[in-house]
Design brief:
The protein is α+β, with helices and mostly antiparallel strands and 385 residues long. The protein folds into three domains: 19-139, Trna Endonuclease, Chain: A, domain 1 (3-Layer(aba) Sandwich); 158-226, Winged helix-like DNA-binding domain superfamily/Winged helix DNA-binding domain (Arc Repressor Mutant, subunit A), CATH 1.10.10.10; 229-362, Beta Polymerase, domain 2. It is 37% helix and 20% strand. The chain has twelve helices and 17 strands. The strands form four sheets. It has a seven-stranded mixed sheet, with helices on both faces. Strand 6 and strand 7 form a beta hairpin. Helix 5 crosses helix 6. The protein is globular and about 65 Å long. Mean pLDDT is 85; it is low at 364-385.
């Protein structure tokens, strides 16, 4: 009997942990003479074998120093040795480069391995050792950083989602890499990483003037299956006021205080289609909630009828729309939030898809197709990556 030949599938891409870039920035910027635009840090959005997860360039008096970093999910000696082995190859290809291991926590034994091998390390609490040229940074004794378990096993990191969201908001536009990066507020290299992956899946197509999204439906389906609503933080409250009273009051407060906000989930769906009825208020708010809770006279309650969410990224506001001076999330973001809620919300999400997304995407693609319009005044720009 002939043996079955197993097909070797290419490993699925995985997002790198974006906290690593932040801790490296903080570490280097504490050195006075490295400030004033002397440090550039760029992280790969998708982990790729044989390439560093993060690259930094530090301008010194005698030239530029390149730092390659590998990010590990924990700092046990075995994983740190793996990172050092990978970094050694990268540093050999780039003469004078310095290798760095980043992890949520790095054990004393792993720290010793790094020192013996001549590599640096940083953990998410800020404990670190960097020693290259005339730079020496050594921090110890800082408390362990609180690290949430990373449930995201896909490639959809917050910055990767910025690129995806931009493509879906402008489904007919022909892009060039720099234009996409500027619109999505990521670096050109990060936009390129996402473009290359989507090209492999045949969800983008090259054209004479650039590239274009050709499988918006498949991209949205894949994103919705991997979307993590829990990245945002929910706070629950109780109010005796009606949903309409709460919405109007919230809108007035945020307008007066210039606070970015948008109704989301069922609350947004009710604005798109008044046939949907819901007795709760749900909204994204990019602000400290103290003032809003006070003015709305809310009381904390785990089963309350008011859900205020601090979003994980300002991108949730992109493409937002106004209904009678009340801001709501875009149809795409509304769909994502409803699908993440599950249950009867999925039926409402499908209705939003049918009525407010599908028709726009199914129209014949034209080279001069306009962008989906939205008021720039009502949509805050994401912070630079």
């Amino acid at each position: 009997m002939a043996k079955k030949i197993k097909k070797h599938r290419a490993p699925k891409p995985k997002a790198t942990d974006e906290r690593a870039e932040e801790v490296l920035w903080e570490c280097l910027n504490e050195v006075p003479f490295l400030q004033a635009n002397r440090v550039k840090v760029e992280q790969r959005l998708l982990a790729e074998p044989g390439k560093p997860d993060l690259e930094a360039r530090v301008t010194l008096s005698d030239g530029e120093k390149v730092i390659f970093a590998q990010i590990k999910e924990n700092g046990q000696p075995r994983l740190v040795r793996e990172a050092i082995a990978d970094l050694s190859k990268c540093c050999q290809a780039q003469v004078g480069a310095y290798g760095l291991v980043i992890a949520p926590e790095i054990t004393p034994d792993a720290q010793r391995v790094c020192r013996q091998e001549g590599f640096g390390y940083i953990d998410y609490g800020g404990n670190c050792l960097l020693a290259f040229d005339h730079i020496f940074i050594n921090k110890a004794g800082r408390p362990k950083a609180e690290v949430k378990k990373n449930k995201n096993k896909s490639w959809y990191s917050p910055r990767a989602e910025r690129v995806v969201r931009t493509l879906l908001l402008h489904p007919k536009r022909c892009w060039k890499i720099r234009e996409l990066a500027n619109e999505a507020m990521v670096t050109p290299n990060q936009a390129l990483h996402i473009k290359q992956y989507l090209m492999l899946r045949k969800w983008l197509a090259e054209e004479r003037d650039g590239f274009r999204l050709v499988e918006a439906n498949l991209l949205l389906d894949d994103w919705s299956k991997n979307y993590l609503a829990e990245r945002s933080t929910e706070y629950r409250y109780q109010s005796e006021k009606s949903v309409l009273e709460l919405e109007m009051a919230l809108s007035a407060i945020c307008k007066r205080q210039v606070i970015p906000y948008a109704l989301m989930g069922f609350s947004a769906a009710m604005r798109y289609d008044p046939m949907f009825q819901h007795d709760r208020l749900a909204a994204y708010i990019m602000s400290d909630l103290g003032q809003i809770v006070s003015e709305l006279e809310l009381t904390e309650s785990k089963k309350g009828n008011v859900s205020l969410w601090i979003p994980y990224d300002e991108g949730v506001f992109r493409g937002g729309q106004d209904f009678l001076d009340i801001k709501v999330t875009s149809p795409v973001q509304t769909y994502l939030d409803l699908m993440a809620a599950g249950g009867k919300a999925e039926k409402v999400a499908h209705s939003i898809w049918q009525s407010f997304i599908k028709d726009k995407w199914s129209e014949k693609i034209r080279a001069d197709a306009p962008l989906i319009s939205y008021s720039s005044a009502s949509v805050p720009e994401p912070a630079a990556a």
